[in-house]
């Protein structure tokens, strides 16, 4: 039996994945050699619940357990002054009120890409897929970003023997088109949005917008596809317009990745994650991605040496939440390293 049971979760705009991490007293699931493993994972639909506390209770009820006393939850949105504002849900939550409602001893809520960033030092080679070769500077910033319901972004800054997380809302920066085709896509999106952000195009809904924009440009009828419809038809080569949309999406991602690497000085490496990356990882062309990533005159040489990897473990954020919780709770830190 473990000494500590930790509740971890990755709560996006659509789904929330919950899991448990066992710690201490011989718990083999989590130790410094093997990293963190969340077991008994269940995915819940956010729309079917009234808030995060309700989902945590529902998860524990399904397992027939009491709500654990320690938790770290990753959420898609900013956290300010102890308040959680979910970006794609109409939820505004007080962390302290939620801790009291769940009767927890320790509750951390962090940005979902902050959790993904914190996971990167613990990920194993089989959980990553190299996209561009380079030499990482171990004392430099690591950038982690990518598309899902929105476009998340965070950075990891070395801090002695630990890391500091820089959560950001970089997905809401303006989208910069790099050619006439992208300018036309941006113009199409601008009919819907006063401000066309990165996540308006590099996200699940953004993929659908690109698909519709390309149909509009070609005077071609489009279907009422979901993001999964577009990507599946593209990957299976079942629809030329869907394939063009996903190829364009991947090229845009390469350009955005280069921009973000420059902005953060990410000589420690770039990691692409989020809900979409594991599904399209084998579709992304490393050569054309690298061309777009590096094409930032006069800084092409700077970018050429930065390694880029895709996080293909879609549960990696749970690793980051567990690591954060352990490293910021003295009794858990002691149990983990004992």
Automatic annotation (TrEMBL):
UniProtKB keywords: ATP-binding, Cytoplasm, Glycolysis, Kinase, Nucleotide-binding, Transferase
One Pfam family named in its UniProt record: Glucokinase
GO biological process, one term: glycolytic process
One term under GO cellular component: cytosol
Similarity-based family: Belongs to the bacterial glucokinase family.
EC code: 2.7.1.2
Residues annotated as signal peptide: none
Gene3D superfamilies with a match to the protein in the record: 3.30.420.40, 3.40.367.20
Single GO term (MF): ATP binding
Entries under InterPro entries matching the protein: ATPase_NBD, Bacterial_glucokinase, Glucokinase
Intracellular or extracellular location(s): Cytoplasm
Known catalytic reactions: D-glucose + ATP = D-glucose 6-phosphate + ADP + H(+)
Protein name: Glucokinase
Residues that coordinate or bind ATP: 9-14
Subcellular location, principal: cytoplasm
């Amino acid at each position: 039996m473990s000494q500590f049971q930790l509740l971890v979760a990755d709560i996006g705009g659509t789904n929330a994945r919950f899991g448990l991490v066992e710690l201490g007293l011989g718990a083999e699931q989590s130790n410094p050699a093997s990293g963190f493993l969340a077991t008994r994972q269940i995915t819940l639909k956010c729309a079917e619940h009234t808030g995060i506390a309700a989902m945590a209770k529902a998860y524990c009820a399904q397992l027939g357990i009491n709500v654990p006393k320690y938790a770290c939850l990753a959420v898609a949105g900013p956290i300010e002054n102890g308040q959680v504002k979910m970006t794609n849900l109409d939820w505004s939550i007080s962390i302290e009120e939620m801790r009291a409602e769940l009767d927890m001893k320790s509750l951390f809520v962090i940005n979902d890409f902050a959790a993904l960033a914190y996971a990167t030092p613990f990920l194993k080679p089989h959980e990553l897929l190299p996209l561009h070769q380079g030499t990482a500077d171990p004392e430099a910033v690591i950038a982690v970003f990518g598309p899902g319901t929105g476009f998340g972004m965070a950075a990891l800054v070395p801090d002695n023997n630990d890391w500091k997380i820089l959560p950001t809302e970089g997905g809401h920066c303006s989208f910069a088109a790099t050619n006439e085709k992208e300018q036309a896509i941006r113009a199409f999106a601008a009919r819907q949005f006063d401000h066309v952000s990165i996540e308006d195009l590099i996200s699940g809904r953004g993929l659908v917008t690109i698909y519709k924009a390309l149909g509009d440009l070609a005077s071609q009828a489009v279907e009422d596809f979901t993001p999964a419809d577009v990507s599946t038809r593209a990957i299976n080569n079942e629809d030329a317009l869907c394939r063009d949309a996903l190829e364009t999406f991947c090229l845009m991602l390469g350009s955005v990745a280069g921009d973000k690497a420059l902005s953060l000085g990410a000589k420690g490496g770039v990691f692409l994650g989020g809900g979409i990356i594991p599904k399209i990882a084998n579709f992304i062309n490393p050569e054309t991605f690298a061309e777009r990533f590096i094409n930032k005159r006069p800084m092409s040489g700077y970018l050429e040496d930065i390694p880029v990897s895709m996080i293909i473990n879609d549960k990696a954020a749970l690793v980051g939440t567990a690591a954060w919780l352990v490293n910021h709770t003295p009794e858990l830190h002691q149990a983990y390293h004992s």
